[in-house]
Amino acid sequence: MMNKFVVVDLETTGNSPKKGDKIIQFGAVVFEKGEITHTYSTFLNPDQPISPFIEQLTGINDKMLEDAPLFEEVAPIIVELLEDAYFVAHNVLFDLSFLQEELKQSGHEQFLGPVLDTVEMSRFLFPKLTSYRLGGIAEHFNFNHDRPHQADSDAEVTALLLGRLLDKLQELPYVTLKKLLTISANFTSDLEELIEELVTQKEKKQHEDILQFDVHRGIALRKRKEVFQPQDQVSGQFSYSSIRQLFRDFVMTERLFSHGELRSEQLQMMDIIQNAFHDHEHCVIEAGTGLGKTVGYLIPAVIHSLTTRRPVVISTYSVELQNQLIERDFPVITELFPFNITAVTLKGRSHYISLSRFEAQLKQVDNNYDSNLTKAKILVWLTETSTGDIDEINLPSGGHILWDKLSTDFPEEKNHKDPWQSRCFYRYTKTRAEEAQIIITNHALFCRDLIDEKTLPSYNEVIIDEAHHLEDVVSEYLGKQLDYVTIHYTLGRLGNKDDAGIISSLYKICKKKDVQISSYIQMLQDKKNVLKEEMDDLFRMLRSFVLEKTSKESRDNGRRSYTFQSGMEKGSTWNAILECIDRIKFTITEGVREIERMSQQMEHEMLDRSFQVTFLLSELQKIAETMLSWKLTLNQLFFGENDNRVTWIEVEEKGALNSTYLYEQPLFVSDTLADNLFGKKKSVILTSATLTTKQTFTYIKARLGLNDFNPTCISLLSPFNYEEQAQVLIPTDLPNVKDVTGEEYIYAISTHISAIAKVTKGRMLVLFTSYDMLKKTFYTVKDKLGDDGITLLGQGVTSGSRAKLSKTFIQSEHSILFGTSSYWEGVDFPGDSLNCLIIVRLPFTPPSMPLFEAKAREIEANGGNSFSDLSLPQAILRFKQGFGRLIRSRQDKGTVFVFDKRIVTTWYGRQFLDSLPTLSVKKGSLSKLLVHLEEFLN
Predict the structure, then answer these.
(1) Which of 639, 662, 665 lies closest to 542 in space, CA to CA?
(2) Which of 190, 246, 255, 763 is deepest in the core (most CB within 10 A)?
(3) How many Å apart are CA 679 and CA 20, to the nearest integer?
(4) For residue 923, which of 748, 756, 749, 731 has the smallest C-alpha distance?
(5) What are phi and psi of 494, to 5 degrees?
(6) pLDDT for residue 689 is more than 60
């Protein structure tokens, strides 16, 4: 095997060597026997000017390249360097394509040796990394990377990464390497020779793997360590008062936190929750940013669990908060107790991998790149994970399709033939939860346990964090949704007997075993094809119906919606829709009957069914249940009684002809929560940083059904000094959005954003309520800023997830992030990464939104005022959430610009400002406000 690796990085004039882009810097590091043995770097004259973007990105300018050699002058050195070596790069196809083109043009033979892509290798060998950008990986491994986007520096960091990757391969068990050997044939990297040598080395040492891993049926798992201590073995005298005093002492002596700062509001929160638990009362606590509410509720929760020997459930809305609780906050408070205390995160079944399904998928031949990469990631991850929770893995974009086939998204099976039953992650997590003091879950699973299916261990006390989301989550859970994409995907899993899919797999097995089911297979296939055609017709007609009934002005973020009531719609198109639904219901009934007949025939003739057959039959049964749920949903939406519920259709205006979505949700969930939660649990603690409007809890209590339970309600202020740390600036020289055209308004706010950005040097978050406005403003600001050295990032405009965009924003010294929807909450930008927040429009819900419109109509019908009782409180809560993005610590400092003049020109505008902490508010022309901004930031 070759042991010479040449790690290469290039800086170029652009992205396409075929279109004339050239290399401007070549960096190479020779890596042999685990260490760097040689380096080579040179600038190259591209014989063309450097664009401002490339100069800003790399720091390389035309003057630096004036006396640099041409590529053809250094080509012999590069060819000799690469001789008998692996060509290694971070995104190898990019660097290799440039090098091959330059070698060709300079008259040299192109590189024909093996290649390794460190991006690809990192993605499956380090499956838990959140970013595979070189800078992110360098930060994770603490590599010194002081000159990113300089070829020599990038090549050296990539070489260090290669060393880690080769070490990781070496650490993997024999059975994992054997399976990776098969999968890696589909990768860009030429890994076969490397893995084959490791397999040969480890073949005679497989017994060593058994000591370190749980090896079962050719798959290696991390060995489980039982660390639970039954509660009846908990020793030592403790009480709430003693732990509280110990907490005070530990904080003051910096044994828990490095800052050594005791927050009176945090202690007050602990006392309130302790008393609520003791007195069996419900409690609503608005906890200001920076108070430390998670530790504030964890301590009384653990003490109550230990004294009552019952778990306390903590429900959160976001995965980020769940991770914070289990990884950061809970380990801190364990220092207070002289014995083991335990917290477990419990999620829905779909979060956990089914090892039986994974084993079956490993046996399937699959040429899809993302699918194979996901299999490789999971193989490595299984040697590391103790939970089997997919949220730990950074899946590739296409990996979610495979995960749908791998998750434990079905009730616990009674099938004792499952060879993985004793190692089921979901069952193991549920067992751990039975022994834990704290069970951390999400609002969706909490709702399921509350309303339908008992999934959590028995409990009487619950803390609901991010409680402002509870109403929406319950409403969505109680609702129904159906869309063509999901239907098409599910029917695609059935397939046909002559191609891939469940029908084909069963047909081949039965043909091999001489089981007579051909007629059933054919009947099922025919019914499935008819159902697909009918569903296609239905969703096309629904889309046409909505486009006929609505105008372009009714669209929101590229979608149009139409609220309908069963029995009230008229017309030939609607009648055709109902007739189509009747045919679909009949076809589903027939299709499910064929599935049942085929399953019974196979069970009758195949008494010694293999696990694979049992697995395929369970998949078939799942699809039958899904099809029946479609039938029930269609029947409810189009023929059922819809009192106190709203049904609507959404279409993507520029999407496919069947890009249509059906929804139904209850108007209000207060009665459901009153009956199922507050009326049944001894103590429910609701907390969030944003629960009050007009300095009262009236709105949230009514929405959640708390009015009859007389809960304790308290607002605990943030410990931050907002008068010194923040200010609100309101420009008065912006037009009213209703007085000008959309283009004129966007030009005006873009001019203001650009002027502010030049003062702040970026470091700005701009919050929108409309994606369309965000997109247009993004490009207008981009034109205005030109080459000012400020990077623009836009949600839905710049590629990448929210997490990726947020991380890029933090890492970029001078950048502006344009966000909507999810950026109003749940993101943190610490320190100097953010010092200016712009709220473009007050965040009122569009009145045309179906659920909002129906709620408003119901409030008016009952004598209320939909603006004061619904629209305004919702907007104020959202406004407070947006404001909360700015100041996240005592060291932060920043300014909030509010561009919406309604905040000073309307009777209700003052209520938005009054909802904020006490701080300076200034209004005036932008030029005057920029003076204030400079003085404040400096």
Answers:
(1) 662
(2) 763
(3) 72
(4) 731
(5) -65, -45
(6) yes
Q: Please report, in range form, the residues annotated as the binding site.
A: 287-294
> Using an 8 Å Cβ cutoff, are 50 and 61 in contact?
yes
572-605 vs 502-512: helix crossing angle, rounded to 10: 30
Instruction: Give me the domains of the chain, ranges plus CATH numbers.
Output: 4-170 (3.30.420.10), 172-223+353-407 (no CATH), 226-351+419-460+681-718 (3.40.50.300), 480-666 (no CATH), 722-937 (3.40.50.300)
Nearest to 598 by CA among 531, 499, 510: 510
Q: What pLDDT, on a 0 to 100 scale, did the predictor assign at position 458?
A: 94
CA distance 768 to 821: 8
DSSP-derived letter for residue 352 is B
Cα angle for residues 370, 375, 380 (degrees, 5° grid): 125
Residues of the binding site for ATP:
287-294
User: Element (H or E) spanning 860, and its range?
Assistant: helix 850-861
Query: What distance in Å separates the CA atoms of residue 764 and residue 773, rounded to the nearest whole number?
Result: 17
Angle subtended at Cα 85 by Cα 80 and Cα 88, rounded to the nearest 5 degrees: 110
Contact 649, 546 (CB under 8 A): yes
DSSP line for 402-462: HHHHHB--SPPP--TT-TTGGG-HHHHHHHHHHH-SEEEEEHHHHHHHHHT---SPP-SEE
Contact 355, 421 (CB under 8 A): no
Instruction: With beta carbons less than 8 A apart as the criterion, state whether 116 and 190 touch.
Output: yes
SS3 (DSSP) at 299: helix
Amino acid at 470: L
Mean pLDDT of 385-412: 82
Side chain identity, residue 49: P
Pairing label, strands 461-464, 683-688? parallel
Q: 589-634 pLDDT, tens per residue?
A: 999 999 998 888 877 777 666 777 777 888 888 899 999 999 999 9
- What would the two tokens of residue 341 be? 């205390």
Q: What does the chain come to in residues?
A: 938
Question: What ranges in 14-91 are assigned the alpha helix state H?
Answer: 52-58, 62-65, 71-82
pTM equals: 0.89
- Calpha distance 867→856 (Å, rounded): 8
The separation between CA 798 and the C-alpha centre of its own chain, rounded to angstroms, equals 17
Q: What is the pLDDT of residue 402?
A: 85
